[in-house]
Amino acid sequence: MRWSQAFIPTLRDDPADAEAVSHRLLIRAAFIRQLMAGVYTLLPLAFRSRRKVRKVIEEELDAIGGQEFLFPSLHPAEIWRKTGRLDVMGDEMFRLIDRKSGEVVLGMTHEEIFTTIATELTSYKQLPQIWYQIHTKFRDEPRPKSGLLRVREFTMKDSYSFDIDQEGLDTAFDAHYEAYKRIFARLDLDAIPVEASSGAMGGSGSVEFMVRAEAGEDLVAHCANCGYAANVETALSRVAAVADEAGPESPERFPTPGVRTIEDLVSFEGGAAADRQIKTLIYVLDGEAALVLLRGDHPLQEQKLQDQTGAMDFRPAHPEEIRELLGADAGSLGAVGVDGVRIVADRALEGRMNMTTGANLDDHHLRGVSVERDVEVTEWADLREVAAGEPCIECAEPIDVFRAIECGHIFKLGTKYSEPLGAMVLDGDGKSRPIYMGSYGIGLERNLAAIVETHHDDNGIAWPVTVAPYEAVITVLRRDAETMEAAEAVYSELLGTGVDVIIDDRDERPGVKFNDAELIGIPYRITIGPRGLADGIVEVTVRKTGETEKVAMDGAAAGIADRIRAERS
RNA sequence: CGGGACGUAGCGCAGCUUGGUAGCGCGCCUCGUUCGGGACGAGGAGGUCGCCGGUUCAAAUCCGGCCGUCCCGACCA
Asked: Which nucleotide lies at the shortest CA–C1' distance from A532?
């Protein structure tokens, strides 16, 4: 490619409303332009990089026996109704009406649609199968943000495995796990596999591949000592036991005027330390009010509440609902004496005695509450969110909690989709059995953004060779006849070796060319100018390190080509 | 969904308080001089001031409504 002919509209100023590093750099370096909230045009540079990401993914999926398909983005709503997900997905699903008044949706994932084809599988002898596609997904996110990190239209590699039993599913899952590790390694992403919640996807187990980055939207609990890693949506940690005294025979009510929060009660005369309090939250789970109890100093992790109660739909109760249920306002709520209402309690409250909690009478609390004696707990569950510095659940060393980008997610689905959609095969005994499925996703543009988040400096992006839009740029310092001739010679030699090269033949001053090459992040720069040519040399600069090396003009192209080939992996 | 901010040329912004000819920097075009880290001079092109309505002799500016975009929060009692 000749830069003079390329559409690479780099910007001199940072875009005003880009916050995340990758968002800012991808716009400025002419990779993307926004069309509307959460919808971006990929300019030629981004298209080239995405094509390389795609190739890496295809190679690794093919290597585990994956077969590539292309499924439609338009789906009949009916299929989604069959699995119950038309409702589960809610407003996140784009819906439209066709000319015959038919309900149509835009695909946000493809379990239902792949499974529809999988109904053509009839015998265990056809299994296992791994099917995938790389295609557009539509999700009407409530809040798109950070450039390509959270968008409403994006490209996803989604694969689905089909096996005769759980053991087969485990094998397919492990194969994906290993393939994903290879994919992220090739993309030069330090992705940590992490235990995760399965959310709306359902199923028995899932692993997220997380890349540590400030712009990330997830929190990961990670133990540097033993390697334990989990999304805080599921993460566990050890809780130091609190020594309780037995306390009184029964709870005692006492006035607490003006006390509204845990902290208020800590500093209130006659109150209690936060770890001696019971925090009472009111949630509406699938339309039913429920009490959620935690230790006073423990925050609720809402995803855990949803996962462990099996609620499809949940929200905190409104103030009126709270008053109607318990007869008091938030700040004075408690579970003592509450009957006929679902009470979900965090395990850290098991066996606790002589605690303090709200009395369900405004401005009053109860002390001397022993949880198991005084509260009708309907279910015990792990509900608390872990915090940095707590002892690791595995090895007791302090854990770290950091922000991360979810670059891939793999799920064991089991028969959640095969049963309602009738994807059955006959086993060796001639018995009809539902297929065991797994589903596995990677968002391509999000991965591009994650690479930028982790590969940049003050001058711009520094792409790894595997995904760089161009592997090398020839920066021509002067457009006089001799210099151009030498540059053209190196250019055609590099093209001949198959290197993805662009020659910067623009009528611009050297500084402009250097800055653009660094902003865009091309891994290797070959600088050719009259000064060096007088001695028969050109310069090779490595973007990542900034190191420059003078090499003989003869053989320069071959040398660069070798280095690039070695880094392609 | 709640809260905050913003919308004027391709990009970054001023002008609005106090209504009267739409401006600056970068970028873009032409010519010349330059040319190893975002050059200089001269001359140019480019804008329904987000949209609709109202007030007024007159609206980027005042008033009302709508739309759009970004950021924060997602209720921790």
From this structure: B36
Residue A462 has pLDDT above 70, yes or no: yes
pLDDT in tens, A244-274: 888 889 999 999 988 888 888 888 888 889 8
Question: Does residue A359 sit in helix, strand or coil?
Answer: coil
> CA A168, A179, A53: angle at the middle one, nearest 5?
140
CA distance A456 to A438: 35
Minimum CA–C1' distance nucleotide for A16: B12
Answer yes or no: is A142 CB < 7 A from strand B.
Answer: yes
Domains and CATH numbers, chain A: 17-235+401-453 (3.30.930.10), 252-381 (3.90.960.10), 470-568 (3.40.50.800)
Question: Is A129 a residue whose pLDDT tops 90?
Answer: yes
Strand B–CB A459 distance below 7 A: yes
Roughly how many angstroms between the first and final C-alpha of chain A, as a whole number? Answer: 23
Torsion angle of the four alpha carbons A128, A132, A138, A144, in this order, in degrees rounded to the nearest 10: 100
Give the per-residue pLDDT at A202.
Answer: 62
Residue A303 CB closer than 7 angstroms to strand B? no
Evaluate if the CB of A333 falls below 7 Å from strand B: yes
ipTM above 0.90 for this complex: yes
Instruction: Tell me the C-alpha to C-alpha distance, in Å, between residue A62 and each of A59, A67, A152, A183, A296.
Output: 5, 7, 28, 12, 51
Q: Is the CB of A281 under 7 A from strand B?
A: yes
Mean pLDDT of A31-52: 95
pLDDT band at A199; cut points 50, 70, 90: low
Count how many Cα atoms sit within 13 Å of the Cα of residue A439 in the half-sphere of its side chain.
24
What's the DSSP call for residue A392? B
pLDDT at A284: 87
Answer for A310: CB within 7 Å of strand B.
no
